[in-house]
Every structure is written in structure tokens, then in C-alpha cells.
Amino acid sequence: MATIRDVAKKAGVAPITVSRVINNSGYFSDATRASVEAAIAELGYVPNRLARGLRQKRTHTLALVLTDITNPFFTTVARGVEDIANEAGYTVTFCNSDESLEKEQKYLDLLVQLQVDGILLVPTAGTPENIRFLQKNDTPVVILDRHVADAQADIVRCDSEAGAYQLVQLLLELGHRRIAMLGGPEGISTAADRLAGYRRAMAEAGLAPASTLVQSGSFTQLSGYQMAKKVLSATPQPTAFLAANNFIAIGAVKALQESGLSVPDDIALVGFDDLPPTLMMFPFLTVAAQPACEMAQQATKLLLSRLAGEGPAQYQEIILPTELILRQSSGQPIPLSR
């Protein structure tokens, strides 16, 4: 592998001159630039950007720590982050915590050691310890998608409570009264907010759902399947499901199909987070869609403004609205007999 000294020898200049050309700093002539660039091309020299960044106390790298990179919602988040970071001359390291606090802590420790310039974090827990760890190590952080109690940090998320409230109101307007909540993990703010929206809409309608209709699980297809199976064993059965995310909804559809029930003829189904158009030949699910790309882009811009010393004086909490998208899965008004 060619070194900076090899390039200098080939170009007939000093190594410091090669460094100046690479970094576009200091004085050098156009002829010198041409000879250095020709030597770099001929030798296939690749500058050690990390080492240069460490000397300058800036690596021009960001990190995005997600909880489930297989979920299309977070894939869209990742694309939004990368687009803005790339425009600003930054590269992005992606980490997947699998909703594991232990994995999150290991990644954050590694990222601090690598001296990434800043971190966008979808936290696995509602406690601020990991946020404080990053700040103690002078690593700027913006929290994405979720909120963390007592965290002194910027947050960019969507209004999950309002989205769930809208979905339940829709089902109530269609005549449903036995509405099951297939929720996310306890201790995760998005799951808690969506449950709160569900309960608020039900309470305003004068309804107190049976405990069997309110389930907590994980944001996975398997959990959606298991929660739906459990709810379907209750008597009387619900007439509608609210799924706390897209994977839970997919699992619920599988459980309904195995039980010989169809959506929406037998049970209505609504959920959170839309699927990308490329994954849907026939869009079907009624959802509260979160603007994943916009959320990611706003968070990245906020982090970059902090790195440039141009951010707002106070920490920001930016809450974006969800969009109610009506499709077939919520069905038509149901007969009073149901």
C-alpha cells in the first residue's frame, strides 16, 4: 500500500507538500498540485482520513444507532440521515441495537472511542444514563423517534399519542366498540404514547376496554401474531385491532388468517407506520404514517448545526404530526348487532 512518502518521492516534493495538496491548505503552485495528484492516481494512494481527523479533533463521521434496521420505517430513517450527512461531507456509521440496552451501551462506548463527531440515537430505554455518558465524553447527540425523561438533549420525534387517538376515533366512528390494542414494549416511549392515545379516545367514548383487549409485546411480527392470537381467544372477540407498528400489524394479519378471519370483513385493522410503496403492490393498511424521512433529516440538520456551533441556545424537542391514511383494512361502518 502506497504511503504519503511514496507519493512525495514520485512527485518530487516533500511529504508536507503532499499533505497540503490533499488538505487544500497552505501554499503550493498549480504545477505542484498537478504532479501530486498524478502521483496519487498512479500509485493508488488513499489518504488516512481517520488519522487526519483524529489529529484535527474532527473525523467527519456521524453514527446512527437504530433499534431494528430490518423495519422499513428505520430503513427510511437511515436514508434520510445519510442524505443530509453526505451533502455536508460526512459519512455515517450505522449500528443496530435490536432493542437491547446492553448492545446500545457497547455501541456507544465504541463510537466514543472512534471519536465520531456526533450521534443520532433511537434509545432502547426511557432513562437518560446513556445520553449523559455521551455528553460527558463531549459527543453531541440528538435523540430520534422517542423521548427520554430528564434527558437534557435535542429530540426529534412524531406525535404518537395523537396518531393513536386518531386511529381509535376512526374505528369508533365506524361503529366499533370492542377495539383491541396490540402494543409495544413497556418502558418504550412510543409504545406508551400509543397506548395513551388509545385509552384517551376510548375514555372519551365512555368505554373501558377489558384487560384482555390491551396487550403489550415487542415491535415484531412474532409478537403481533402472539398478541392477536391471545386477544382472539377472548369472549366476545374484538371487532377491530390497533397495531402499534407495521410489524405487529403483519403478525396480526397472519393470526387472523390462521383463525379463518378476514380483514376487514370480520375484523378491522389499523396500525402505525406505512410501508414503502415498493413493498406494496396493493396498499391495504389504514395507518397513522410518520414522516420518517423528514424526521431523520431534521434531526441530522440539528446535529450538524450543533457541531458547527450554530445550534439554538436551548435544547429542542421537535414533534412532527402523523398523517392518517385511509385504506381498505379499516373497513366500512359495522352493523349495530356487532
Notes on the structure:
This protein has 338 residues and is an alpha/beta fold. The chain has three domains: 4-47, 434 Repressor (Amino-terminal Domain); 57-159 and 291-321, Rossmann fold (3-Layer(aba) Sandwich); 160-290 and 324-330, Rossmann fold, CATH 3.40.50. The protein has twelve helices and twelve strands. The protein has helices at residues 4-11, 15-23, 30-43, 49-56, 72-87, 101-113, 129-136, 160-173, 189-204, 221-232, 246-258, 292-307, and strands at residues 61-66, 91-96, 118-121, 141-144, 154-158, 179-183, 214-216, 240-243, 268-272, 286-289, 317-320, 323-325. The strands form two sheets. A six-stranded parallel β-sheet has the order 2-1-3-4-5-11, with helices on both faces. The chain has a six-stranded mixed β-sheet with strand order 7-6-8-9-10-12, sandwiched between helices. α11 (246-258) links the parallel β8 and β9 (268-272). The protein is elongated, with a radius of gyration of 25 Å. It starts with a helix and ends in a 13-residue tail after the last strand. The model has no long low-confidence stretch (mean pLDDT 90).
